[in-house]
Amino acid sequence: MTDYQRLYTYLFNQVTDCIELLKQAQIEAEEQYLKMDDSPSPAESPTNDTPPLQRP
Q1: Phi, psi of 34 (to 5 degrees)
Q2: Looking at the domain assignment, is residue 44 inside a domain?
Q3: Which residues are CB-neighbours of 36 under 8 A, at least 6 positions away?
Q4: What are phi and psi of 50, to 5 degrees?
Q5: According to the UniProt record, where is the region Disordered (predicted)?
Q6: How far is the C-alpha of 28 from the C-alpha of 52, rounded, in Å?
Q7: pLDDT tens digits, residue range 24-41?
C-alpha cells in the first residue's frame, strides 16, 4: 500500500525549500539593485516599452 503521508511530507518539504530559495533570491536581487548607481542602463533606454524599476 502506498504511504501517502510520507509522499505528502516529502512534497511539502521540497516546496517549502523552493519557496525559501525564491525568497532569498529576491532579497539578494533587491540588495544588488539598491547598491547600483542611478545611471541609466541600456535596458532603461527610451526605446524600451517597459517602465524602469522604481525604488520603494
Answers
A1: -70, -25
A2: no
A3: none
A4: -90, 140
A5: 32-56
A6: 19
A7: 999 999 999 999 977 666
**Cell, residue 53:** 524599476
pTM given for the model? 0.57
Percent of the chain with pLDDT over 70: 70
Which residue in 46, 53, 3 sits closest to 32, CA to CA? 53
Number of neighbours of residue 30 by Cβ within 10 angstroms: 13
> Would residue 25 count as lying in a domain?
yes
12 in a structural domain = yes
Distance (Å, whole) CA 50 – CA 5: 46
| CA gap 1, 30 in Å, rounded | 47
